[in-house]
Records
---
Amino acid sequence: MKIIVPYKKKGGKSRLSPLLSLSEREELAEYMLEDVVATLSKAGLEDVYIVSDEGLNAVLNKIISNSTDPMLIIMPDLPLISIENVLDVTSSNEDVVISPGRGGGTNILFLRDPSTFRVDYHGASFLNHLQIAKDMGLLTRVYESFYASCDIDEVDDLAELIIHGRGKSSQYLNSIGISLQITSGRVHVKREGSKDLIRP
Amino acid sequence: MKIIVPYKKKGGKSRLSPLLSLSEREELAEYMLEDVVATLSKAGLEDVYIVSDEGLNAVLNKIISNSTDPMLIIMPDLPLISIENVLDVTSSNEDVVISPGRGGGTNILFLRDPSTFRVDYHGASFLNHLQIAKDMGLLTRVYESFYASCDIDEVDDLAELIIHGRGKSSQYLNSIGISLQITSGRVHVKREGSKDLIRP
């Protein structure tokens, strides 16, 4: 099974800029990718292709249009995904498995026969992909997982990584002094030495 | 098995006030509770006690200190929880099952022998509860679920309810003109007739 990971190291993760410098964001992105690839490897999936995320839909649709073997498209900013998540998704019997991210995203997409599908990651891609699968008469499973839902894009998302992470990316946050800020309501994050609660 | 649902209808959900009026927030809270109770019922759990959430820790610790039968403590603002979620949690063999919410919360807590535990819902309660279970030598399972992680507290959370909800509370949002606002990045919500993207 081929694993496709759309990835941009340079200049990505701009929504983390209220808290992290450009080089920190790039380092974090790299560590998150390493965490994802390490989990895939532990799940026995080694055939991993990192592709550019510039023109994401075009890049992916070109790849899948020529593929008839099962394929997993997984985002690189899912440092919490577990081996169980990966095994559950890839052992599904359905034609398509969609694992939603927060805010309508598609964090993991499993395609039994990629050539029968086309991706649309713009907007509420979770809904797009459900509709596309329906239009194409494909049997679909929604794989719901908190860990798989946590794409790390915004400052508050870092709290999830600190609380639940066990890989390199959470260690990295710790190493640069990012820690939890316990407040009423949801927990946020702060940087060591900073008195202020940081909100995006 | 007793099910405990800490609930406040009056004046709750204040973080939704950028988008919803007081009466709308109270109605939404009520519909979400109904969705949760309906799912519990479909999972065969009918012994449901709605308790006040004023002084939450004291209320719950008083209840559990006198209970030795398995107990499920579940929050009322989890309209996405599935029958499978409820069955998975309550059929666990561990002493304690903790299902995390976003931002370090504890959305579902299953206690095989409640009298051996005490709750602490302040701050990062997920971490508190892990630590308490460890201190008490209890075998613990983290039950990770996207649906169970989605407590509806903030305006952006409504997007999850619109996208994934199938119960009364998502119908209610639709009935008062709340719909998705598709933008770059995560999807947000808007109110019918409003041109502006509403952010908390």
---
Amino acid sequence: MLTLIDERNKKYVVDGKKDFHTDLGVIKAEDIQNSKPGSIIKTHLGHEMKVIKANVNDYIDVMERRCTIILPKDIGIVITYTGIGCGDKVVEAGTGAGATTLRFSRVLGNEGKIYTYEKRKEFYEIAKRNIEKFGVKNVVMRYRDIRDGIIESDVDLVFLDMPDPWNVVEHAYEALKYGGWFVSYSPYVEQMKKTRKKCEEFNFSEIFTYECLLREMEIKNDAVRPKTRMIGHTAYITFARKVP
Amino acid sequence: MLTLIDERNKKYVVDGKKDFHTDLGVIKAEDIQNSKPGSIIKTHLGHEMKVIKANVNDYIDVMERRCTIILPKDIGIVITYTGIGCGDKVVEAGTGAGATTLRFSRVLGNEGKIYTYEKRKEFYEIAKRNIEKFGVKNVVMRYRDIRDGIIESDVDLVFLDMPDPWNVVEHAYEALKYGGWFVSYSPYVEQMKKTRKKCEEFNFSEIFTYECLLREMEIKNDAVRPKTRMIGHTAYITFARKVP
Amino acid sequence: MLTLIDERNKKYVVDGKKDFHTDLGVIKAEDIQNSKPGSIIKTHLGHEMKVIKANVNDYIDVMERRCTIILPKDIGIVITYTGIGCGDKVVEAGTGAGATTLRFSRVLGNEGKIYTYEKRKEFYEIAKRNIEKFGVKNVVMRYRDIRDGIIESDVDLVFLDMPDPWNVVEHAYEALKYGGWFVSYSPYVEQMKKTRKKCEEFNFSEIFTYECLLREMEIKNDAVRPKTRMIGHTAYITFARKVP
Amino acid sequence: MLTLIDERNKKYVVDGKKDFHTDLGVIKAEDIQNSKPGSIIKTHLGHEMKVIKANVNDYIDVMERRCTIILPKDIGIVITYTGIGCGDKVVEAGTGAGATTLRFSRVLGNEGKIYTYEKRKEFYEIAKRNIEKFGVKNVVMRYRDIRDGIIESDVDLVFLDMPDPWNVVEHAYEALKYGGWFVSYSPYVEQMKKTRKKCEEFNFSEIFTYECLLREMEIKNDAVRPKTRMIGHTAYITFARKVP
């Protein structure tokens, strides 16, 4: 996969399987196949496109979606505070458009696996297309309500972005490895509180909840300041670890 | 590697190569080798230890270090905003005690590689011991001042935690893949500003700087509130992407 | 002064000196004069208006202005960290539309005084109208560049919202009472740094800089969360106290 | 009242009614009476003390207290978002050590009045001493449980720092002027939520809740950064306005 950047700094993600059409003209599949990061290719109308290595963010930005996407800042802390990485087994619900699935997929590698549950047919189909098109091999999609149980066992992380994560705490406890993590992403205080209580009931350990705030700094006329606008809140992220 | 949790909730990370001594008694290497996550083993004094899968955070918490460690929150956003993952090639400086090296190592996998530069002999040695003991195979340590040049090429990410990252921007530009990222971690505004200017000179694109703030929520007597204490600042993290 | 609230929750601030015209009809001056907080009065078209005591925020919201207004959060910390109150003497520059002037005026009372400097004729005129209409007696307006010197002496607070506050540090030092405060409001790091250095040169004490962040909580469907949107930055507020 | 600053930058607040004893020696009452801001006076052991105008923060820092004090940042937003000022009438509970009482007292002036309720004898006595010693004339102390009713009427602000502010919403509604404000200061989400609901029942308008975060910037070796330590949370401050 490659990312093309046009003269207006607009980005496109292409795989070179077929000709690529934009309002600045057509790029032949062949030209894409022959290019590599660093190349500059031209549309049939003569407009230049810079070619760079595509990353998962480029792809998520342009892929089909009909729902909100969890921000990288929030997935970042899930990855580092649980310590997941290559070779690990992750269970996720709901899939949504598949953005988080792809992010996890990136850090789990070919030796790892992510099983993603989605009970809404529409999102299941969208995510399926998105994930297939991105071409990763370590994702297993499940068209299923995770509240009916988790099929996998010996799991390193169960990650939940759904309205009622407390209803999956028991299933998660069963599915998890000792030392593995349950993590839920919930916008509301009440969701977080109810989930934490359930985690305590099931004897999870190291229960903590973080909120992650990102501030962007800007430089204008050679002077530095934080940006005026900022996202005030996305969600409370609750972590709980299974111990004997 | 396994993590043991004693009755006081203190954690130990063990590899079972030899007997393990604590103030609660000795655990035989053999007992460690025969245990697995979920086991409970006893010291020769009869104290119980719960066994769980060790993760990179357990290990970093107990490993040798004589310097500050970059917090998971900050490495989290580096991972997700650059989109690095399995199979990628990362260059890092300075190594410090090796904590960040190990975190990157986790998400790069066996197909990926991290080259970590440290010019201070003392830290180089500490990190070497820490990394070897953790048993990862994708780390190449370089006892070298990264300001003298980056040996690698076609790199996905150059990550710098050093006082003068601006002195490495040129080397990073050369070493990076098109589409790869330069990221610097700097506590002071002036460092960030100087580095960003240098990135602009070298025609990097998508330059942005984030500060990541983590708030922990607590539940006391069944009532929720953010914790009184909070880390106010660690560093400004500047991102810049190489484009043609 | 009274605040009227119409059926759409839109607010108006009226003084009853003349008939008041809105798109919901006219209210006679007489009706306003005969009303008091708690009254409900009708326009000639029969629309009801609730009457409440007007406060300075109601007035600032509707008054004429062609510039950004400093937010209450920022003036709040100026008031409480300097400890100013009734009977104190404050010098301020620039006046802008007069919003901050009115806020200070409220807490200084009839025994106190605020001297506000504005060198831009247009803003001087706007502020003059705003301040006169609000009807306070403790404001002295100066159409003058404060960098040319401060006329007053024995001042409790010099508050500066201007691009180059460092150019007024010397004048402020002379004008201030021992124990009085110099405070500057600056969006950029560089302004703050330069001003602090100047304060150090003039031997000010208790120099500190705050940034004030306000998060609003919301309740939706009986569940609590911080709002998604938040103002990320307004200004760095630097305090310095004159000591012998 | 004057503030003395010794050679170690330690502060004392004195009224000159009697000799002042410190570990650096004694200062005669007469010497204090004859000094003014800007003076330098000596103890009988020859140590110098700088004299400055005392402010309410100097006094609060040294006064007797056996409880936590609400921080200036939080009182700041109460003052500016309600628009209270000289001549206003405020009701407060509980008094605690009287710090907030003194802050409000400063901005209400001689024409204003603050009625402060405290039901715990011990705190009532401490606050009484603190307030008398500070010498303000606009404070009326009430040794009384505010949940038994508010004696005053036509009040501009009812400010509550107590565990169950919802129990005072009805009394506050009765006591307030139309256009006046109910404000409660509560560390926990649940307190805030319960109070807001009660405010909705009593038909309060303009209900909103803020959390105020202060970040301090520091300069080290000529470089700027936010401080490492920060107060993560004090309280949720809920505002509600009485309308007809």
